[in-house]
Request: fold
Amino acid sequence: MKIAVLGTGSVGQTLAGRLAGLSHEVVMGTRNVAESLSRTTPDAWGNPAIGTWATQNPHIKLVNYSEAAAFSDGIIVHAMNGFAAIESLKQAGEANLSGKILLDITNPLDFSKGFPPSLFVSNTDSLGEQIQAAFPTLKVVKTLNTVTNPIMVNPSIIPGDHTIFVSGNDADAKAQVVEVLKSFGWAAHNILDLGDITTARGTEQILPIWVRLYGVLQTPMFNFHLKVAH
Amino acid sequence: MKIAVLGTGSVGQTLAGRLAGLSHEVVMGTRNVAESLSRTTPDAWGNPAIGTWATQNPHIKLVNYSEAAAFSDGIIVHAMNGFAAIESLKQAGEANLSGKILLDITNPLDFSKGFPPSLFVSNTDSLGEQIQAAFPTLKVVKTLNTVTNPIMVNPSIIPGDHTIFVSGNDADAKAQVVEVLKSFGWAAHNILDLGDITTARGTEQILPIWVRLYGVLQTPMFNFHLKVAH
Reply:
């Protein structure tokens, strides 16, 4: 497939790299290509800046949001900072998005008042719903937002079964996203369809316990396994 | 121990019954004893009304909130409807609560606008924090609020390991609550101390996905097992 990844941070890099490794044609979308390519200072966690990463991954072309969305033949991965989510899609352009699937990983985290972050939308709404409402012809499928990026694309980092959630209004779009998840290594029985996009409220509101667990465990390499009595 | 259970719904009944079965002396607190004893119509799920339950459990005396709190020699279980949580404690009386441990199971669920329920406090605050702020001399320990009541007191309903969270400001109070959890069957390695009472935001915000999972799974008999990469 021809897949666009919007977002050049560690989530975007991880998704783009993994998808390219699975033989998809991948481009990465950014606001300003020249500015992105000039960045070479690693982030606080030691992740490479996008300029460095792009040099190391010449098979993944860095283009602007609208070129990236236009390139996609069906799936657009949305790995933006939550605050930039809707603006980046506006720049991508409704015509380039229409009818395509948005595999939406964004979380509405607000670190502006320090730790713990709050959610800038929650409870009676979600970022997934806001994106779907702003782009009605886009098929938004929220998933992968409850795990750290290495686990997203390689769930075997956590031994045994553990669960990933899928939310979205379009059954066919969810089925296609599930195939992507399976290609990353998620077992079918560990992929749980929660229902329509309003269920993104549930997964986005996992973040408040996620950030506390990161603090307690001192590692982001964890996930939940949903277990049901028989 | 002499334990008070505030709340006469299915959570209160389950906790009171289990604690009495573990040879604690247990009383149950309610707003109006005579009115509670007169109730005999089962709820929508077929759970017995408190009047029926009290007749079947004569060893657990039904008293008002202040008598219940005064009876406790250390632990008060808080199993109220979220909206009634702080008012019931006001009726219990600060003097009867002071220095005691509140094992707080309440969730800020608001079903007034139908399904899915919203949370009447969330994100930058929690019901656990509101209770702690309203009753500074009470040692609030939030726990058990992420599972349905049969699992609270009998975790083996779910096979294998699965996780229960504890939040609270007082280390000794948390240690005593952990002993109660262990007596219910929770293995020590499945009890996770998230930190101070502000971490109740994390567990209370699990409810939005919990209610959706109940809908998808068609059973409340589930829980999460937190798994960490090694």
The longest strand of chain B covers residues 222-228.
